[in-house]
Amino acid sequence: MTTMEKVSAGISAIANQVFDKEPLNYLEVAGLYAIVAAGRHNMVSLEVLYNHARDPELKALIRRAIDEQTDWLINKAEHLLQASDGLLPTLHFARRKLHDSSPDLPDDAHFSDQEIVGAIASMAKASQTAVLSAMHQTYQPEVAQVYRRILDAAFDFNYSLLQLALDKGWLPHMAKVKH
C-alpha cells in the first residue's frame, strides 16, 4: 500500500467506526475467537522458546514477536470481541517469566537456536495464514485494519528472522534438483 492508500484506509476505518457501525458477523467473531485462543497458546510457546534461546539477537527477535505482535493482536482481538458483546475464550495458559540466560539443561534436553528458528518460522506461517483467512472473511474495516497491521508487522518479522538465520548459518542445506 502506498502512504496515501494507508491514510485513506485509516480515514475510512474511522468514519465507519463512528457512522456505520455494524455488529460482527459469525465468521468475524469465530475468527477473532480463534485468534485469541491460538494467540494465548503461541504466547507461552514463545516464552518457553525465549528461555531456551542462547543467542542474544534471537532472544531480541522472540521478545519482539511477543510484545509487538502476539500480545498486541490478542489485546486488539479481545477488545473487538468485547465491543460486540462476544465471549472471550476461557482457555488460559500459565505465563512464563522471561529469563536472560537459558536454563542449565543438558544439550539433549534443550532446544538449539537453529531448532528455535524453525519452530518460530512454522508458528509464524500458521499464524499469518490464519490471520489472512480471517481477513478474507471480514466486512468490518476496523477488523480488517487490525489484520492488515499485524500482517505488515509479521512480514517484517519474517524477513528479520530469515536474515538472522542466514547470518548465523541456521538454515538447513537443501540439495539442488538436477535435471
Describe it for me?
It contains five helices and no strands. The protein is 69% helix and 0% strand. The N and C termini lie far apart (39 Å). The longest helix is centred in the middle third of the chain and has 28 residues, at 56-83. The model has no long low-confidence stretch (mean pLDDT 90). By secondary structure, the chain is mainly alpha-helical. The chain has helices at residues 3-19, 26-52, 56-83, 113-136, 141-168. It has a single domain, classed as Ferritin.
How are the SSEs ordered, and which strands pair?
Layout: H1 3-19, H2 26-52, H3 56-83, H4 113-136, H5 141-168
Helix pairs in contact: 2-3, 2-4, 3-5, 4-5
Query: What is the 3D shape?
Result: globular
The level-1 CATH class: Mainly Alpha
Class by alpha and beta content: mainly alpha
Number of domains: 1
Per CATH, the superfamily is Ferritin, core subunit, four-helix bundle
Q: What is the overall number of helices?
A: 5
- Sheet with the most strands, sense and barrel status: none
Q: What CATH architecture do you see? A: Up-down Bundle
Radius of gyration: 19 Å
Tell me the total number of β-strands.
0
Order of helices and strands: HHHHH
Q: Work out the helicity level.
A: 55-70%
- Mean pLDDT across the residues is 90
The parts where pLDDT drops under 50 for at least 5 residues are none
N- to C-terminal separation?
39 Å
Query: In percent terms, what proportion of residues is strand?
Result: under 5%
> Any idea of the CATH topology?
Ferritin
